Amino acid sequence: MKRIGVLTSGGDSPGMNPAIRAVVRKAIFHNIEVYGIYGGYTGLINGNIKKLELGSVGDIIHRGGTMLHSARCPEFKNPEVRQKGIENLKAHGIEGLVVIGGDGSYRGAKALTEQGFPCVGIPGTIDNDIPGTDVTIGFDTALNTVIEAIDKIRDTATSHERTFIIEVMGRDAGDIALWAGLAGGAETILIPEENYDMNEIAERLRKGQERGKKHSIIIVAEGVCSGTEFAKQLKEATNLDTRVSVLGHIQRGGSPTAADRVLASRLGARAVELLIEGKGGRAVGIENNRLVDYDIIEALSKEHKLDLQLYKLSQELSI
Ligand code: ADP
């Protein structure tokens, strides 16, 4: 393999930049040329492809977002459109592609591989919802953003003796809600993986008030319902007035944490090694602090499992 490409696709996440940097530097270290595809699969079909040098990825390790930009490209589900992308890659002499993104991006990478173009997937999403890895690039940074927000909301919640509902991202996964809720000391965490019992939540709030608690923090994963919707349900059940905070896209930004930079560097370098070994159609990940790789099809068919022990713990610690 003499020339590879790299792109970022789907929802961006902090840590995509250090992953791009690792791909570029590791490849150049092995005398492989690297081309950046700008704007995800849209850039691929439009031929928005430029050579990256060592210096092209200088000064990005600490920056959120992605220097290659990202996009959603619904037409990429069409095999003829993908073929156009493959032709653009071949026109530049590119023989393998690293795709950094979420499960949708993996499906695109899988489809390209099945059409004969070897791709390796790197899990880049704040949602932590990719199977075949304990953790995705961007999850740790998003968690830290969320707990910073929870800590601030806790200050005002205490001053005014209020109950706050904080809606966090995660799509269909409850990982951000669970981890941030646990780390932020939330009283109640609602995740899509578990049903909630409004009576139990009301009882918990009542007990807290009885023992003189000044505030309550309820974290709602967007995969359950909106924070506003939950506030309405809680009002109907308890007549309690709450304040709702929707953290939104701030969770996708910010300088990647050390954990995300290290993870991105390791996974980026491993993806290049796999292409060098001629192993296309793989997805890299980390399990028990060891780098792993799976067939991208197999990885997607596995189910991402949220750590329900953590959920149990969060309930035990918020009695
Ligand atoms: P993420 O990668 O963050 O999950 P999306 O689900 O939006 O984000 O997927 C990113 C892009 O991947 C889509 O816009 C599309 O171009 C491509 N993609 C998603 N699903 C498929 C599929 N089944 N086949 C081919 N390409 C796909």
Automatic annotation (TrEMBL):
Cofactor(s), names only, from the UniProt record: Mg(2+)
Reactions accelerated catalytically: beta-D-fructose 6-phosphate + ATP = beta-D-fructose 1,6-bisphosphate + ADP + H(+)
GO CC annotations, alphabetized: 6-phosphofructokinase complex
Listed transmembrane segments: none
Gene Ontology BP annotations: canonical glycolysis; fructose 1,6-bisphosphate metabolic process; fructose 6-phosphate metabolic process
Record: residues binding ATP: G11, R72, C73, G102, D103, G104, S105
Alphabetically ordered keywords of this record: Allosteric enzyme, ATP-binding, Cytoplasm, Glycolysis, Kinase, Magnesium, Metal-binding, Nucleotide-binding, Transferase
Family to which this protein belongs: Belongs to the phosphofructokinase type A (PFKA) family. ATP-dependent PFK group I subfamily. Prokaryotic clade 'B1' sub-subfamily.
Protein name: ATP-dependent 6-phosphofructokinase
